[in-house]
Fold these 2 entries.
Entry 1:
Amino acid sequence: MPELPEVETIRRELEREVVGKKIKSVEVTGARTVRRQKPKELIARLEGMKITGAQRKGKYLLLVLDSGDVLVIHLRMSGQLRRAVPKDPKEPHTHLVISFTQGGQLRFVDPRTFGEMFIATPDEITSDIPELSDLGVDPVETPMSWVDFGRLLRRKRMKLKAFLTDQSIIAGIGNIYADEILFDAGVRYDRDTDTLTTQEIRRVYRSLVEILHDAIKYGGSTLSDGQYVDLNGKPGEYQSHHQVYDREKQPCRRCRRHDIVKAKFANRSTYFCQVCQV
DNA sequence: CGATCTACCTGATGGC
DNA sequence: TGCCATCAGGTAGATC
């Protein structure tokens, strides 16, 4: 479900809603949500702690605690974080509930159960947990120049879409935003990184920054299945700004004369305009 | 090293 | 109406 813009939207809400709150109790009911450690250990390291910060690295959310520990959350395909009060009916697939001493709850809901939560020390995050320590640059958190971006690109030899979605190079871009970025830049998904001209590199990077920030501005994308919602259950609005994603056979919004094509790349759908992207 | 495929799950959708 | 195949925002791991 969520890519950088959706996770960033949630992070900003967490900053307002849970930072400063103290954890009274934690209930783990899902069998798979806490799988790197015993739920008991996670609960023990959470209860009684105050949340002091809400950070994001790529698609990972990090809730920093006053104990020094960090609660790491990855939503994967269908995970949601929802604000609630104890009397709210429990939605199906609610796997973990954090209750605050100030009242109110943070609930983790995840139908497909790919999402996970674990608690780690900052040291473990920077050096021991490969997915996190090997994470590439977060283009929103740590802006770079297009020249730096070009250096990253020149170091690799792969298909452009694979490059953009490789979390160990650039963190946060997934299937939707890769397609939107490539359309905006006018470059095909299957171009080899070593064939891009300097101008194309500059265009791809400018599009990358613009699309991600624009998507954050609109609160991310919610597709027809309505899976992505924010802390308050509100869907995003960026889907109506999509130029290609999920627009197969609909006219290209740039050239207006050709239909968006859906192709398979790396076993997933890729949407593009055969005329506007070269 | 990169490309490709599978697995992990539930639920929605569309064809027959 | 029901049954079955296919697909979905992500990622890790196996294999070539």
Note: The mean pLDDT of chain A is 97.
Entry 2:
Amino acid sequence: MESTKLSNSAIARLLREVSAAYEIKGENQFKVRAYNTAANSIEHATSELKDLWEEGRLDEIPGVGESIASHLDEYFRTGKVKHFDDVKKNLPPGMFAFFGLEGIGPKTAFKLAKELKVKDKEELLGALAKGKVAKLPGFGKKSEDLIRQALERRKVEEGRILLPIAFSVAEKLIEEIKRLPGVTRADPLGSLRRMVSTVGDIDIGVATDNPKEVVSSFTKLPSVSRVLGAGEAKASVVLKTGRQVDIRVHNPKSYGALLQYFTGSKSHNIHLRKIANSKGLSFSEYGVKKYKGGKIIGDYIPTENEEALYKLLDMQIVPPELREDTGEIEAAQKRKIPYLVGVDDIQGEVHLHTTNSDGEETAEVMVKEAISLGREYVGISDHAPSAKTRGMAGARQEILKRKKEVGDLRKKYGSKIKIFFGAEVNVDSQAKMALPDDLLKLYEYTIGSIHTAFNQPKDVITKRILAILENPYVNALGHPTGRLLGEREAYEVDWEKVFATAQKEGKALEINSYPSRLDLPDGLVKIAKDKNIKFLISTDAHRLAHYQNLKFGVAVARRGWCSKEDIVNSLKPEEFAKVFKVRG
DNA sequence: GCCGTTTTCGGCCCGACTGTTTTCAGTCG
């Protein structure tokens, strides 16, 4: 069975299909919902479901109970689930080809597949072209267009947007929105505000007493190319860059409710609403009302900001990055939300490249930029020269040359910034470090990384990572999962072993801030943090602009519940050198 | 089908928008 069928998103999809099948068959709506809840929960889980299954921990996923767990067990053992096949048996198979596209839910997918007898997207496009869809009862010209668009959009725009891209699009647009007359606040919403590594949609919340005027002037902004829809409460537009953006508009008195609601996550909100109900309150995106005997009564209780809203529930405000219903609500009730690390806590960084390897700037330019950014220390960590291509003597010579260069920079800039001399060192496919120990120890520190042979089996990759962590001259593990968002899956690793070894050896794990990496991912950060492992937040900068990515690495740490105590480079230079075991 | 500070039964978040209707169904977030 290929591994793609076993990914969390593939399993989530499977459960959604079962949910859809149940819905068509008129099954109990709560059962329909239960399958959807389980699917959402699995999609957002921080561990691979297959790993949890191997460890007998499927029931730790909220929404997965005895029944679904036993179905999943069958799926992992045999590659299919007889009960699921039975449920889907009498339904037109074509419906699952369209189901889940934007605007096409279970009922629509079923009607299209059954009435038009189409089996795949191509046949549906054909039926659309012949005007067959518009003639179906309950369908018209508009729905025909929507379905065609949904089919075509999926073709061009597969997948999600990298966080830093969504962030910059939203940042610029929010500036424009804030300048519109009548706007008192504007904020990112959804996965963007929670700083999830990839973002589905760019949503922005806007506070104003004049929703109509604001929506109207928003749709006329110069950066807007097309208006998809606009009402009193929201508007959807396509920007000239091709990005879709939705805004949600609301009055300032209950803006906190809107902000909270659309920041999500969905599971965080559902949990919060249950607590609200138990306290005689009812939440919606429009505000908070009293709730008694199943009835909502009275006027909205003012919630201008989120603090007010969480206070009504007798809990601490939860930072957006933690709102995933993974324990933050219970922590907030006990006033135990940690003080999360911030960008300003980062004192220096030691994963940087220069023209000595694949960077675009000289070490001097990189150092000067770090000074102007207020960093207290930097470490130059070019890819180590290869002993294979240069020979031992050649590699040694190159290392010493670079070392002297750093020494010269110290003389020049040492009063303004502390400079460390390091390297990023590969481990080869045979789990051997690219340089022997007597060359590694010429560096003051090294970061060990995997840069080749990503497709090896789990036990081999794990062995290579352990070789990195167990080497006395390696100080940190670089971009631990090797994932490239939207390009390459993470390699398979036995994290239990890796974390145990990192802990035993006192080695830091990198949180790489590079937009397509964001690696270690937040879910694994949280697990490692609970084992008292320290992290090194790096930009892995190859050019000056990359220094700006630091905030995204910090966001990953925040989503992993890290305080500044968990981040080794939040320490002052001397303390950092001690804890990171920099060799003098 | 899931779940538990109303715990093994009896509940399960809530409202807008769209397109099609003429009072609502489906979908989305």
Note: Chain A has a mean pLDDT of 89.
